[in-house]
Amino acid sequence: MSVSLEKIDMLMERANISYKEAKEALEKFDGDMVEALIHLEDAHKTGPKNSNGNRDLRQEYRHHRQQCHQRPQNDFFEDMKKFFDKMHKTSFVIGKKGKKVLDIPLTVAAIIILLTLPISLILLVLPYVFGYKIVILDPKGSKVKVEDAFKFDEETVVEKEPEDRRS
Description:
Elements: H1 5-15, H2 19-28, H3 33-42, H4 57-89, E1 91-96, E2 99-105, H5 106-115, H6 117-129, E3 133-137, H7 146-149
Antiparallel strand pairs: 1-2, 1-3
């Protein structure tokens, strides 16, 4: 049975579906508009409706785009929060022969160094002059290699083979 273009257009507007979906639904129910509409609703092919009772694809598209734009921003702040949490749990330690003279969170050390930059550069050299060592310890208490501290994605980092320095 052939279905009239008016019925297809009417079903397209009511259910806010494509031409193909409207034609298939009407052909399945021999042009019965009510049965085709009930079938589409049961199959969840009709979506949220606008003030006219029709699904508004533009509104759904805008909503989808807004959600897509919010994700990267939320991810950035989540990454920054994780970074500073990890940094705060890491310790900046100055010590000599197992005795700690200074043990503060790395975030505090970074802020002090940045605020007193010219003086702090000199002060960072002084412990070495007097035989002290500056060490950065992770939350477990083991020494942190500075190169490893800035690795964010283990899969993208290529490990270098140790070179033989005798040659």
